[in-house]
Amino acid sequence: MAATPDKTFALEQPLDLFRKLQWEWDQLRRFDITEAAIAKQYVALNAAMTAWHLTDWFCARMEKQHYARLSIEVGEAIDNCRVFKKWVLRQRNISICEQIAVSTKHYQIDRREHVVATDRREFPLADGLVTHYLMVEDHNSLQPIETVIGFAIAFWRTVFLMTGLATEEDVAPK
Questions:
Q1: Phi, psi (5° rounding) for residue 124?
Q2: pTM over 0.70
Q3: How do residues 125-150 score in pLDDT, each as one tens digit?
């Protein structure tokens, strides 16, 4: 088993980071859609980074039996971190989060198989107010970042169960 990280303000295992992601998603959904708050952008970026970085936290904790369980569940050989990361990136919403996370850290990213774009969009309401959404465009599909993060949470919840790193109770929606 991997050593406890010493620079994470008491986050010690993937489940801790998963709970952080759930908290960020809750924060993201609490913003008033009629406000163009910079804080919402910050929370969205943090959530995307957390969703992607869970990959590394899983790699740090997974042992042979976890890879074996996952391989059986998904029907393909996933026996090390490198293969695990490639498998994770095939999940569209995690791939979106990876692109956001990497471009946030490095400003630009290397060419990807598919490219996403993020944008702040405004949509008028009937009463004259305007809604503000953080949107992700992916293959001519447009979806709010809240949706991307929600699907990322669902994916990681499933990975916890398939690997045996958490129970249903551990990853139940709060």
A1: -75, 145
A2: yes
A3: 888 888 888 888 877 788 899 999 99
